[in-house]
Amino acid sequence: MRKYEDSYRHKGLRKKLVEGIREKGITDERVLEAINAIPRHFFLDSAFEERAYEDKAFPIAQDQTISQPYTVAYQSELLQVQPHQKVLEIGTGSAYQACVLAEMGAQVYTIERQKPLFDAVKKFSFKQKYPNIKFFYGDGYEGLPTYAPFDRVIVTAAAPAIPEKLIAQLRTGGMMVIPVGDKPVQCMIRLTKLEDGTTRREDFNNFSFVPMLAGKNV
Ligand code: SAH
Fold first, then answer.
1. How confident is the model over 143-202, as pLDDT tens digits?
2. Residue 82 contacts by C-beta under 8 Å, 6 or more apart in sequence?
3. CA–CA gap between residue 170 and residue 88 (Å, rounded)
4. Domains (ranges, CATH) in the chain?
5. Which of 210, 216, 217 to mutate to test the pocket of ligand 1 (most atoms within 8 A of CB)?
């Protein structure tokens, strides 16, 4: 059984990481505080633990990645999430992004299509700190119609196009943040759902995510 310990050294490294993210342009203090509060080294394979506070993406199981902290901060800031809002996340992965949103007070519903990753998260004891996260094994393209509507949707894998079913599950006035494109680099897009059911689209910076794939993987 792996022992999780958050030492002064880890906390010091984390503060530096947060300052680095601030210098790169993140201004939402609630996002920065959440990143400062969460021991990212808990989410990494012990082989990468030493490097957990570098502002880099790292491999997790099943050829997937834990997003770069700057990217997590960027998406979280664009999402403008308020406490108690219902947030749907597509792509649980390590659950780091889900914990950042939960730390900010959101009610998080997160979906993962890869069974081994979903099972690993179930055993991850740190998640007990966040009873406000619900974990689902399924295809994110379908969303979670039973729990809709959501105030916010965040997609943490690269979608070739904006999935219509996810727009349908967004509340009026709600927002979705999603990296779109099938090239190695995707554009971060924010959609706001308007009264008439159409969306307003804003384009932000380019990022590089693993692909959003259809169907479940056992
Ligand atoms: N948010 C994660 C990032 C994980 S990388 C973190 O903080 O660690 C993206 C994840 O999306 C991968 O785990 C991948 O398996 C998952 N994914 C890709 N397509 C998906 C889909 N259609 N439904 C649910 N999850 C999906």
1. 999 999 999 999 999 999 999 999 999 999 999 999 999 888 999 999 999 999 999 999
2. 105, 106, 151
3. 9
4. 57-207 (3.40.50.150)
5. 210
- Radius of gyration for the chain, computed over Cα atoms and rounded to the nearest angstrom: 16
* Whether the predicted pLDDT of 1 surpasses 70: no
Q: Which amino acid is at 89?
A: E
67 is catalytic: yes
Taking the C-alpha atoms of residue 80 and residue 174, their distance in angstroms, rounded to an integer, is 10
Residue 185 DSSP class:
S
Q: What is the DSSP letter of 15?
A: H
CA distance 104 to 100: 6
Q: Beta-carbon neighbour count of residue 77 at 10 Å?
A: 18
Residue of 212, 216, 217 to mutate, ligand 1, most atoms within 8 A of C-beta: 212
pLDDT of residue 218 exceeding 90: no
Ligand 1 within 6 A of 64 CB? yes
Query: Which of these is catalytic: 7, 46, 67, 94?
Result: 67
Mean pLDDT, the chain, rounded, equals 96
Q: How many residues belong to the chain?
A: 218
Say yes or no to pLDDT of 49 above 90. Answer: no
Distance CA 184, CA 211 (A): 9
Q: Which whole number is the average pLDDT over 98-122? A: 97
